[in-house]
Amino acid sequence: MPIGEIFRHDTIKKIILKYKTIWALGHAMALMGWDLETYMPQDGIKDRSEAFAELEALRQRLVKDPELEKLVNEAEKDSGSLNDYERGVVRVMKRTIRIAKAIPEELIRREAKVTSEATVVWKRAKSKANFDLFKPYLEQIVEIQREKAEKLGYEEHPYDALLDLYEEGLRTRDVEKIFNELVPATKKILEAIRSMGFYPSHHPLEDREYDIDAAQQLIRDILVGFEWPWNRGRVDESAHPFTIEMGVNDIRITVRYEGRDIKRAVYSLVHEYGHALYELQVDPRLAHTPIGGGVSMGIHEGQSRFWENIVGRGPWFIKWLKERLDKHIGYTKSYDPVEIYRYVNTVRPDLIRVDADEVTYNLHIYLRFDIEKKLIEGTLHPSEVPMYWDNKIEELLGVRPRNVAEGALQDIHWSHGSIGYFPTYTLGNVVAAAMWTRMGGPDSELLRKLKLRSIRNWLKERIHQWGATYAPKELLRRSLGVELTAKYLVEYLEWKYLELPNKLNEYIA
Amino acid sequence: MPIGEIFRHDTIKKIILKYKTIWALGHAMALMGWDLETYMPQDGIKDRSEAFAELEALRQRLVKDPELEKLVNEAEKDSGSLNDYERGVVRVMKRTIRIAKAIPEELIRREAKVTSEATVVWKRAKSKANFDLFKPYLEQIVEIQREKAEKLGYEEHPYDALLDLYEEGLRTRDVEKIFNELVPATKKILEAIRSMGFYPSHHPLEDREYDIDAAQQLIRDILVGFEWPWNRGRVDESAHPFTIEMGVNDIRITVRYEGRDIKRAVYSLVHEYGHALYELQVDPRLAHTPIGGGVSMGIHEGQSRFWENIVGRGPWFIKWLKERLDKHIGYTKSYDPVEIYRYVNTVRPDLIRVDADEVTYNLHIYLRFDIEKKLIEGTLHPSEVPMYWDNKIEELLGVRPRNVAEGALQDIHWSHGSIGYFPTYTLGNVVAAAMWTRMGGPDSELLRKLKLRSIRNWLKERIHQWGATYAPKELLRRSLGVELTAKYLVEYLEWKYLELPNKLNEYIA
Question: Same structural domain for residues A123 and A163?
């Protein structure tokens, strides 16, 4: 590895050399995760779980190696003579070491034990729509997360410590500011959508069944259209689509074919493609270093949402998509492009987050953020969550769960101990809209002419190539000149849902 | 893991706890190896190789952990109060630590560097049939292996040290004794086969092409017939079939479909099945411990050869196989069972080891053993290998390579640095024949009635369940009451090739 090209500082070189073992463990665990979801024989889960736990503990030990910390501190003291990449290495390592050292092994073990049981119980509780089964686990999980927040430390709000785990530097205050603007604006947009009647709440194509083989061909064709580098990546099937990165030349995505409503497979692919592209376009010279991958969940989600919603559900994508749908799925032929556009852009205030459209999605996230924040600050007790949820979702979206499976038990996240993760989804929408604005918004040539290669390069130059060189907020400031704000997202939604219907032909033609 | 059931000694428990991390690394590397051969995107090899090297170095560090060694020595001192399993743990750990400590890191790095280049050069040299390209690499590899032998130490012959790496306790003397009996006996059998004329040197079915989809169905059907546990294993495709074990509940085999001569796919499957069955039947209570897998290459190969040759190419297997061939491949229908038996039992003295039948195979191994031994003791120089090879193979089999690609460059092993590995193939045949004898030989009810489940149980009780509890020679002595000798293999070959043709109908009917 010619690390000398950009990593010149001796101490940094030593850090990178030590880090390579940590990277290799991450590589192995990424493959183990991918295999678990794709090809692993069913009973392999027992061995796999034990191996995961061992390797994660080993990784922690390597991260906490006092020699590594000494090198990092040494490099930090000489910060003035480091370049941006080298400073990035120090920043990421300090953060990684700080988190590893803050959380005692005992707490990690307790969390692993509780959450592995909780995931099983959650599944049963959801299938029986019985919150009481899950309640004692949620109580323990909240308690553990609160302890974790105390161990990690925070300046303003204990929830900040948890947010930061998923999104470096994100604070409760940032998220509140975003939702304070986004929630009322979204409600207004939803009202206008209803009164205009252009965007349907349901489209007949959603009920159409498709042939799985044909859909597999369609997915391959879309990726070929995206110039997917088959020598550096794969596409497989899994129950829940995901992207995994095992190195700059091995990035894998998965899709799911449900046999009905083809747009679901298409857009989950385009979403994962956005994640994959980020990793594919990181500067290869950063490979195997602490800054060699995407910088945060939120920036990552920004890339996937940009491709899924802004490129893929935009008017500019419709002819390109319809051509391929017509070829492989056939029954789309009798629908004109405007109908296809309406089919992929239904807006339906409803109960289930994972089925939500790009307008209502953030309201689902707001609900979860609000509950998580209150659980962590202790102003809401786990036992109160179902009732609080039902009231709040009705207030936000005008729909009320018939049972707790459609309400507080719908997501797996809490059973995994993931509290503080949900806001990164909305952050993704915020980031995607900021990129859209900087790309030119409604007037973007790249989008209007669907110059896919130029779009990729635009993203590469501004965001992807840097990997984790800059912290998320700094990256947004440097590369897009934006702060964390809902402004661009609101403008994007207003344009797409209130203005565009009247001039759609200009964009689709 | 209820290790208390069989591992009661406190020090042993501590060893097993420490070993679990080493096991987990092995699990990850096994998956990385499997993926490399099956699904990894082409350019992923760079990341994969770097990760392998890092994790292997990490594994070495963990094996050489002084605390682990202290525990092992402590347990050894208290040997009298250990049960057989616990003594097995001590034996395997002592051996693993001894090997890791003997070979200096510098030598490992040098070997890794030379062999990774050598593998590429070997491929080119073979394709150009030009030994000179490969010669300097073979010289370095032999030199490194000689150094390794000195570091490892030996009592009688430096080659012993290398043999022991692949087969615990195997000595040059053992292998010589086997071949001293086996080589002349094989030559006699070959002569008799030629004069009897029953076993063909070529069968017309070898030229028949088959449909890959149909062959995949056939392979699945054979595995279903073997009651393959799909919840604990997989079958995939790869260029070179192999078996890999990632834990007691995750064992994977691969097959290869060449489109011609269906027996090649069938018997490579049956061979790998034999390997897989060994791992599938290890006592699950030994999982994640140093004795939780097959004990050695030779015993492992014994299992695969037993299934491939003794079960699969035996007269007892023909009707079972023909039923499935007829169903999926079709053109076998016009051949009677005796013809199918002759088709799967061609005997052809020829040049290429991997294409050799069970009679001539050991002569190929003898040639390699003879050359390796001389290279290591320094009585043959790498530059002399091609000529020596050609003369020797002509003397053994009556055929002479037209070029070095058919001779000394045919195998990949030396380019990998594997010197001392080949004899385990013949050891496998020796072990398989000993098992056959103990199972009842020609009169075995289990074989004659093809009681597959009983055969599996027989193997499980005597060999498989023990994992690496007993060293190979001890296992053979305890479970089969045999020493390492070619006696049973010669008896088996004489029975099958000289006696059986006259009473084949008794066995096939």
Answer: no
**ipTM (interface pTM):** 0.93
Give the one of B35, B54, B230 whose C-beta lies nearest to A31's C-beta.
Answer: B35
- CATH number of the domain at A407, please: 1.10.1370.30
Alpha-helix runs per DSSP H in A204-250: 212-225
A171 backbone φψ class: left, alpha, beta (φ>0; ψ -120 to 50) = beta
What's the predicted TM-score (pTM) here?
0.94
Contacts with B55 from chain A: Cβ below 8 Å = 21, 24-25, 28
A509 three-state secondary structure: coil
Structural domain harbouring A253: 158-509
Asked if A152 and A211 sit in the same domain, the reply is: no
Q: Which of B111, B272, B279, B406 is catalytic?
A: B272
Which helix (H) or strand (E) segment holds residue B237: the answer is strand B233-237
**Is residue B163 domain-resident?**
yes
Q: How many domains does chain B have?
A: 1
| Residues paired with residue B234 on neighbouring β-strands, in sequence order | B252
Please report the pLDDT score of residue B1 as a whole number.
43
- Residues of B whose CB is below 8 A from A245: none
Q: Exposed/middle/buried for A239, CB within 10 Å: 0-12, 13-18, 19+?
A: exposed
What is the gyration radius of the CA atoms in chain B, in angstroms? 23
pLDDT in tens, B60-100: 999 999 999 999 999 999 999 999 999 999 999 999 999 99
Cross-chain residue pair B47–A27, CB shorter than 8 Å = yes
Pick the last residue of a domain from A97, A132, A157. A157
Note whether residue B237 is domain-resident.
yes
Query: What's the CA gap between A244 and A229, in Å, rounded?
Result: 15
Neighbours of A476 (CB within 10 A): 24
List C-alpha distances in Å: A287 to A9, A18, A304.
Answer: 17, 14, 21
Instruction: List CB contacts of B122: < 8 A, sequence separation 6 or more.
Output: B134, B137, B409, B412, B414, B415
Q: Of the candidates A121, A141, A157, which is a domain's last residue?
A: A157
* Cα gap A293→A287, rounded to integer Å: 8
Catalytic, B272? Answer: yes
CA distance, residue A397 to nearest chain B CA (Å): 44
